[in-house]
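Bench notes, afternoon.
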Amino acid sequence: MPRERAAAAHCLLVALCFVSYGACDVAGGAGSVNALPGGTGSRAAPSFDAATPRNVTALVGKSAYLSCRVRNLGNRTVSWIRHRDLHILTVGGYTYTSDQRFQASHSPQTDDWTLQVKWAQQRDAGVYECQVSTQPVRSFFVTLHVVDCDEIYQRMYSDGVPSARILGGPDLHVDIGSTINLTCLIQFSPEPPAYIFWYHEDEVSGRKQVISYDSSRGGVSVVTEKGAATTSYLLVQDATPADSGRYSCAPSNAELASVRVHVLNGERPAAMQTGSAGLSDSWVCVVTLLAAVALHTAVLHTQLTS
């Protein structure tokens, strides 16, 4: 029965192609798919949203979603057709193929008609046609690309070599008793690192050890956010001079990155890179501005009294 329904639906669509006009009008043809001709009445004609993506990329084994946004559809029907074999996949919300990986969905509150391809395979790649049953029928084309993990790996590596860096280096100065907050950014990696180790090296003794989050010191925590770029945050509370030294972030898939941390007891070196240094700079600006205003006022007063 599905084969008979598919054949009937195909005959209906072919007939619509040749009624009155003699041929289908598609994207790139005589008329634009985004400006469909209206009827003689006041009702607006169906139109495609030009902002809808025409290229979709999916991973092998994952679902692919092809969107078709039709405004002012009215009582017309939306169908999805696979161009490789001109196979009608869906008509409205009905599936006209024995391959149950294909499914059409539509929410009554939206203009979107989405074709879902479950467990996409590379053979599913190609052009798909979203067709509206106007006279003549009008079409919107979406190209599906299906790639495997090896392709993704190669693409990401072509953009750059996986790398890690700690923001704000190479030297950071913090006040005694404050919190050391280090941020390690891992980029250009085909996948998030399996693990990230943090090291602390005392530059006086040369002793280097993995930072332990459950050590007797306490107040040490790490927060890692994985994604296209992975970020790892190291927080060391109540900093003491013993916490000074070199800190390194070592992800599993990139070279380690390091920064020197100086825990200060009231000192204010000129090269300090802290919020307090920025605040001091701000005060310098304020004092300079006030001095300029006072000078301007004095000059103006002199001119008025002379």
